[in-house]
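Appendix B, Record 12. Input sequence as logged:
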Amino acid sequence: MRDQQVRRIMSTNPATIGPFAPSSDARHLLESGGINHLPVVDDGKLVGIVSTSDLLKLYLLDEELTGATTTVDQIMQPDPISLDEGGTLREAAEKLSTGGFHALPIVDEDKHLVGIVTSTDLIDHLLHQLPRNDGSIAEVSVAGLQIRNRQLEKVCKAAELYMRSGHAEHEHSVLLKALQDARVLDETVTL
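Logged structural output:
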């Protein structure tokens, strides 16, 4: 298995927050986005990171900071370890393996945030590289993912139309067709 650039698996345009935002805003973004790490940016530059663990510590351990006046800069981890956008998966794994954190912001040469990679992203990538029980390898295909995403968008649009229509016969058939196409695609497209 050869090393690859980190941009292959990084999440681009991650949710971010400013350093002077209330900690309650960070909590809302983490909960509503179903994420565990929130890069803190000031003028587009990475200045810190807030995790669900940071918020948990805030609300469990420091009673003085639990008020509405607590800001992100009071609870964030300043100057987090990051990786240059030209970095490799090996470099990301090495940095994450040092322990203590599970997210690695990806930055350009001016320290502007361009993405984020988590330990979960690396594990998922590794799982797609390892042989299955039958000896085959499930390599993720970007083209396959794009096709699958377009198909899922069609299903969502059909479902939304169906829900707004009062369950008319035509909209019902459009939804069923979109679901059937998604099932066929799932069976034929290698991801």
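The two ends are 18 Å apart (CA to CA).
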